[in-house]
Design brief:
- The protein has a nine-stranded mixed sheet. A two-stranded antiparallel sheet has the order 7-11.
- With about 280 residues, it is α/β, with parallel strands linked by helices.
- Strand 8 and strand 9 form a beta hairpin.
- The chain is globular and about 55 Å long.
- The two termini are about 30 Å apart.
- It has one domain: Alpha-Beta Barrel (TIM Barrel), CATH 3.20.20.70.
- It contains seven helices and eleven strands.
- About 20% of the residues lie in helices and about 15% in strands.
- Keywords: Iron, Iron-sulfur, Metal-binding, S-adenosyl-L-methionine.
- Its cofactor is [4Fe-4S] cluster.
- InterPro entries: 4Fe4S-binding_SPASM_dom, Aldolase_TIM, Radical_SAM_PqqE_MftC-like, rSAM, rSAM_sf.
- It comes from Bradyrhizobium uaiense.
- GO terms for molecular function: catalytic activity; iron-sulfur cluster binding; metal ion binding.
């Protein structure tokens, strides 16, 4: 059944599904535990790239009230079919958000994307080499970067962690540049020498950003809890077999809610920087 063709009144606005288009990320940000994700994912599935057919089947199960966010656990455009996936989701009426380093994208991709509307288009800017592999910042990349700046996409932002790569600093409009100085441990998954873990929260917890409804689609169809769950600690189901609504009715999600409400058992949220303690008499 195609559930994405109309607005589902039972799905509130504000929900997001992030798309992980590939298990292989070459960008190599030191503050991203992508290697842990790739290693863990390989123990479950040998599917490296999200195929168009699989994406189309998953998309048919997602209500249009759910925004589609091309980001996930790796650079989206390392999958050559990423632009086609964006176009499909846009054509079905989903709100579209992009988070990319631009690695893997080309001029034709950019021209096709210019024809679409986005809720957000965020470029993760290469730094001067402290945490990112700056070998990607060569002439073809710089040419594409200039084209993107000139495209004047209304929702575009350039997000930088640390010092911006000098070849890019002179290209980015000052009003569109956002600096983030602090790094997070991604719920304890990052090397503690780069970003130390927080002290676990006991008792009832809540997510400051409602990430329990900002889930992640993996190339084999599995759905993980959120973008902090690089090691697949909480898998809600699989969109190649489950309807979107069923992800939140199953035992796995109910268990997460119970543990957020104070029940015993492992809960990734307790180590997450986005988690907040709640009074014991407040139910989620």
């Amino acid at each position: 059944m195609d559930r994405s063709s109309s607005k589902d009144p039972h799905i509130p606005d504000g929900r997001v599904l992030e798309i992980t288009t590939t298990t292989s990320c070459l960008v190599g940000c030191s503050y991203c535990p992508q290697r842990k994700f790739a290693e863990r994912q390989r123990t479950v599935s040998h599917v490296r790239y999200l195929g168009i057919e699989a994406f189309t089947r998953c998309l048919a199960r997602i209500p249009t009230a759910v925004d589609i966010h091309f980001s996930g656990y790796s650079e989206p455009w390392l999958n050559p079919n990423c632009t086609k996936m964006v176009e499909q989701a846009h054509a079905r009426g989903h709100g579209i958000r992009i988070y990319t380093t631009l690695v893997g994208m080309n001029g034709r991709d950019l021209r096709r994307l210019q024809a679409l509307r986005f809720k957000a288009f965020v470029v993760h800017v290469f730094d001067s080499g402290e945490h990112m592999n700056s070998r990607f910042v060569r002439q073809p990349y710089l040419d594409l970067f200039r084209q993107l700046v000139d495209a004047d996409i209304p929702s575009i932002q350039f997000l930088a962690f640390g010092e911006v790569h000098p070849d890019l600093a002179k290209l980015i409009p000052a009003k569109a540049l956002v600096h983030r100085r602090s790094l997070i441990s991604r719920a304890g998954s990052v090397d503690p020498k780069i970003a130390g873990p927080r002290a676990p929260i006991a008792g009832v917890v809540t997510c400051a950003e409602g990430r329990q409804h900002r889930n992640v689609l993996l190339p084999n169809g599995d759905i993980t809890l959120c973008c902090m769950d690089f090691e697949r600690r909480h898998v809600l189901g699989n969109l190649l077999r489950d309807d979107y609504e069923d992800l939140f009715e199953g035992q796995d999600f109910r268990q997460i809610v119970d543990r957020m409400n104070g029940a015993s058992g492992f809960l990734l949220c307790r180590m997450c920087e986005h988690a907040r303690p709640k009074l014991q008499n407040h139910r989620l």
